[in-house]
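Hey, I was hoping to borrow your eyes for a little while. There's a protein on my desk that I can't quite get my head around. The fold is given in discrete form, as structure tokens running alongside the sequence. I'd be grateful if you could look everything over and explain what you see. Here's the protein in full, and shout if anything looks odd to you:
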Amino acid sequence: IDLFAPDGEPVARLEGLRFQQIDRLTISDAGDDAGEQEDGERKDRGTDWLYHVKWVETPFQKMAAEGKQGRWLVLDDSDGIGELLVQRLSDRGQASVLVKPGSDYEVDRSPNGECHRVRIRPDIAEDYIRLLNDSAHDTASNGELPNEISGVIHLWSLDAPHDDETSFKSAHRLSCGSALHLIQALARKTNRPQVFFVTRGAQLLGDDQPTRSTLAQAPLTGFRNVCAAEYPDLGPLHVDLDPTAGTSVQADNLLGELARGDSSQHVAYRRGNRYEARLTHFQGSDNGVSEARGER
């Protein structure tokens, strides 16, 4: 099987792939050792083999007025969500470093000498290592304890270009490309903070319709899954924000995720509700906003 890009360029070839038709009765026999129920009717357990991702509504979480001493690295977006998040963290006594993409590595320090804003080159791996070192070497506000990095919030995928085919090819620079360099830099550290990968409208829930932005951000979902398998101690969380919500609401939703500290893996916000992705048996009747289409 040969796979081609829209412009006709070959991108992949599958060799040695074989398909064989199998009837439903065979699947039922394999899934049910007993073969028959007490009333003599065959018990069809073929559906036990089918799973899908179901989005289940879950409660919100608010961050306490004051949190533990630490520092958050916020890879900032152009819509202002990162700026609002940093302000909300500051109101709760949490320090942050705002990180923006740039053409060179630059550090802006606050009046007390702490690393405050940083510009890094998204496609230069060494810049991420320098960022982590500069942030970790600063002292806390009491001048005694080091500022441990509490977590890293990756918002750059929100700015991934998606206007045409050419921009899709370069979207990885702010999306998976930067995420890869970030994870590789964090993997060098002994104490690894949690990572939050943020998208907006990348997941399709209920009646959501795919857009160019959906396609540009979607690869980060798969990258997060690979990251979780290779570096589970990073506890990577994928947060998909509601594209119809205002910037302030999106920042509040994200702030709540920083406070949870649970085992969530994929979270989505839609129409004022919070959903978590759960792997469940497919019954053939799950519809509406709770179902993630295309994931079985």
Remarks:
- Confidence is low (pLDDT under 50) at residues 33-43, 139-146, 292-296.
- The two ends are 22 Å apart (CA to CA).
- The first strand starts at residue 2 and ends at 4.
- The chain is about 25% helix and 25% strand.
